[in-house]
Design goal:
This protein has 340 residues and is an alpha/beta fold. It is built from 11 helices and 11 strands. Strand 1 and strand 2 form a beta hairpin. The longest helix is centred in the N-terminal third of the chain and has 25 residues.
């Protein structure tokens, strides 16, 4: 690497055309200027100037070295300027989150990018442990996770709540009627209504075909029979969701179920496809209810209305040692408006 001090002296020499003025501007002696020139020529292995009395004339190699030195000087100036000026609507922003959260926030981020075309927004779908590891290791600047992390290496801020739902097929198999107390032989499972999740706010309750209300105990037993008959559509987050749902939903019959011992009827790790087998009556699953707003077959699904609403808190996470660049603050504000 060529010594940048020699290059700076050479630039001044070329632009002043004189060793005396170069020494004055560089606060050096004339022998010092000559020494820098000599070392630069040795590094480049060629003659850079021809002395003409008190002035100089550049050789062809000298002209090329001058252009190179000016380019390096300008790059350094631009770099230093970039450290002092943080544009709020320019640059790359990477946000890591779950697939369900990505579905909710991505439209808003696209709208932001459309408004400010110099923004370059990347949404990375990743599990919670990967996001927290990325923040702790400084390979990620901003993430969104459920539940507040307990680590001094991670700064977190509350964003809002994410509702979880036990999602089942709207029409249950006829063979299930005999196994579920209170359902007639022709029962198709659930009362009619919107199949949408949090978007419409409408959920269904386990009921007989006649629509007669049942006790909470019967509801719990009916649901327990339904999920054991249908089988679980497994996905990467389902055990965590199931455990939280069973613990917090307020249904005594469900609280005693061990999620690890439930029968499975399928597995898929792509969020957009998890509800497809459920809609075909091949199983049930637990997901954020917001996922129903992004499937075209929501009318074939229903959400069990438990005694208690089950939610998970959402937190933004970042390194605690430095403030986020201004562009991330803009992105974070857009996310908060969606999730808050």
């Amino acid at each position: 690497m060529i010594n940048p001090t020699w290059l700076d002296t050479f630039i001044t020499l070329v632009e002043t055309g004189n060793f005396t003025r170069t020494a004055e501007q560089r606060f050096m002696t004339q022998p010092g200027v000559s020494q820098h020139l000599k070392k630069l020529e040795e590094a480049c292995q060629c003659e850079l100037v021809v002395r003409l009395g008190k002035g100089i004339q550049l050789t062809e190699q000298g002209q090329r070295v001058y252009r190179y030195a000016k380019e390096q000087q300008e790059k350094e100036q631009d770099f230093i300027a970039s450290l002092k000026f943080d544009a709020p609507f320019e640059g790359k922003c990477v946000v890591a989150c779950s697939g369900a959260i990505a579905q909710r926030i991505y439209p808003a981020l696209l709208a932001l990018q459309k408004q400010h075309s110099a923004l370059n927004i990347h949404v990375e779908v990743a599990p919670r442990r990967t996001i927290l590891s990325g923040i702790a290791n400084n390979t990620l600047e901003l993430g969104i996770v459920t539940n507040q992390p307990e680590s001094e290496d991670i700064h977190s801020e509350y964003l809002g709540e994410e509702a979880l739902g036990l999602i089942l097929p709207r029409s249950l198999p006829d063979a299930l009627a005999a196994q579920v107390p209170g359902l007639s032989e022709n029962a198709q499972g659930f009362i009619s209504g919107s199949g949408s999740g949090s978007g419409s706010g409408s959920v269904a309750k386990v009921a007989s075909v006649s629509g007669k209300a049942k006790s909470k105990t019967d509801d719990g037993r009916s649901l327990k029979a339904v999920i054991k008959y249908l089988g679980l559509i497994n996905h990467p987050d389902v055990m965590h969701y199931l455990q939280r749902y069973f613990n917090d939903c307020g249904e005594a019959e469900l609280a005693n179920i061990n999620p690890n011992k439930l029968p499975h009827t399928g597995y898929i790790n792509q969020l957009s496809q998890i509800l497809l087998p459920v809609s075909e009556g091949l199983g049930y699953t637990v997901l954020p209810t917001s996922t129903l707003d992004f499937v075209s077959f929501a009318d074939k699904l229903t959400v069990y209305k438990a005694k208690n609403e089950v939610t998970e808190p959402l937190y933004s996470v970042q390194t605690p040692h430095s403030a986020l660049p201004a562009r991330y603050q803009v992105v974070k504000q857009a996310i908060t408006q969606v999730l808050g």
